[in-house]
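Researcher: Go.
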Amino acid sequence: MQVYKEFIYYWLLDLSGREIFSKSITTLIVGVSIALLAFISFYLCRKILVTIIHRVAERTTTEWDDILIKNKFFSGLSHFIPASIFYFEAAYANDFYPLLEGYILKACNIYFLIAFVFIINSFLNTVNEIYNKSFSSAKERPISGAIQFIKIIFYFICILIFISIIFNKNLITLLTGLGAAAAILLLVFKDSILGFVASVQITMNDMVKIGDWIEMPSKLANGTVKEINLTTVKVQNGDNTITSIPIYSLISDSFINWKGMEQSGVRRIKRWVNIDVNSVKVCDEKLLEKLKKNDLIKEHIEELQSGSRSPIDPNDQFLWKNQTNLGLFRKYLEKFLFNFPQIENTMTIVVRQLQPTENGVPIEVHVFSKETEWPKYEAIQSDIFDHIFAILPEFDLKVFQHPTGTDLKALISNAELPVQANS
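Model: Structure:
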């Protein structure tokens, strides 16, 4: 390049006889020639070397090289060739314009830095993708948060290097001067630091992973976890909306993870129906005979009538001879739930009476469904309570319900009948 530069310079000097003109045009021509050489080298590298690497990667059985190509790792490496050409040929301007060499070296260093950032970013993306595809524990322990934290630190260091290049400052001096701005940096990167700490705690304690169904009412989130990154957890709700939750909220606030329910294969049904207190009574012989036609409760009634069993004291004739319709209903419901095909009868089945309120006597059903999927679970729960509402009249029981407009109209109509008769 030195011979080429001298040839151009002396040729222009002989042609024009002006030294300043010869220096300027020579510098321009040599600079354009170097830029053209760098571009040709970059083009050949992209078209030949990278193409060869792509073809070799397609023939291999390993997947990591395909991911590197997908993330343009080798394309990033090809930028080092033109940057190297500019860097080593920057001295051409030293003879005519010494200051120009310094600017060219700065531009080369910035070019190197940008290419290096691109390569490292591509490499980290590749590591994350290979981990997600190659390890079965990737859903339980994702590393995307750690990768993002590394990127933030890396970008911060690169920014410092960029500043040191522009202002010709030593990188150590810049790092030393950051001590005074530490509080500002902590404030700026507060979410990232909190997110990184939270992601480590979540991963180590196995609190939540991609695919889990979580519920967090304070953040209006109730759905499946789709993504966990450094700062947020993305949850797809039942209506397909996406809720973004700050990841440190999973540490500071409470939330429900339904993973245990899904792994157990059963889901709890806990619901009650309010019985009208006025419909509760001691069963007479007519009602008992009617209920004995039901196979689920027949044996229990016969045992009570024969005196072979009593819930409290077999010597107390009143207790076993004077059974209430509500007590028999509870016993019937236990038998019904035990034989219900979608109920896990090896687990707890409880039909209990809660504290009476102004809304009647609550009868609570506490069982476990074999189906955990929401639509099937709701269908089973609805089937059970449909049957409860339908069977209550057989026990001469009524569901408590506040008076409606229809009830009030009927009451008024009944009250007016005597008046009409007198008239």
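Model: Residues 419-423 have pLDDT under 50 and may be disordered.
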